[in-house]
Each structure stands twice: as C-alpha cells, then as structure tokens.
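Batch job 17 of 40 flagged for manual review because the log was empty.
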Amino acid sequence: MLISNDVYRHEGGLIRFLHSRVAAMKLKNAITSSFSLNQNSNLRFLTQEHIVTTLCVGNFIGIVCARSLHYQFYSWYFYSLPLLLWKTPFPTLLRLILFVGVEACWNIFPSNVYSSSLLFCIHLVILCGLWISPSEYPYVDSKPSNPNKRK
C-alpha cells in the first residue's frame, strides 16, 4: 500500500510540475507579445516626479484615514510633507504654517483631544489642497521639444 501511494504522488507531482512549466511558458509568451517595445507600441513611461507624488499622496491618505496615529507614523510621512505642501496651490506662508502646525501637534506628548483634532484638521486642509491642485502631465515625452529648432 505504501509503494502505490508513493507512485501516485510522484506521478501527480511530475504532471503538476510539467503543467506549471507549460503554463509559465504560455504566460511568458503572452506577456512578451503584449508588451513588445517596437515603434508601434503605445507603451509610455511615467515621470519620476509623478511616481513619487503618487506614492506620497497614497501614504498621506492612509495617514489621514487611520483610526489612530502613533508617533512612529510621523516618520513615515514627515519627509514627504514638504513635497505634498508644495504640490498644493496654497501661498508659501500658509504652507509653512501648515508644516509647523503638523510638527507642533506631533510634539505634544501625551496627545490630547485638541492636538489630535487640530492635526486632523490640518491633514484635511492639506488633502483638500492636493485635491484641488492642477494635475500635471504624467508621461515622459519621447520627443524632445525644442521650439527654436527649425528645419
């Protein structure tokens, strides 16, 4: 009985292994044929600034929507705050006030209702500023634009 179970298990293992190899080869062929980098491809590359902004805004939205905040969370988004504030259409003085307000709220220990409420309001103001800010063209131009060059 033990020998027959081993035989079936190994046969099933071999069949599963071959099936996974064939499936992997089909997937690889499908991916390479779908994303070929020829001249007729519609593949466009995103700018580095757009990628970083998207990641920082996503992280910030997570901070704003968190049920509770801990002091180590501040280290997650502290370095992205200047970028996020400069993406808003606010005047520079308001950006600086918001930055100092966030810092002041986080430096109150232990936190209380007032510091937490103020931090939440400041976060909402920054989030609204990001929402109303004009969007930028996210793609890298493949053709260099030089308006002075004429043929």
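Reviewer: the log was empty due to a logging misconfiguration, but the result itself is present. The mean pLDDT is 82. Unflagging and moving on to job 18.
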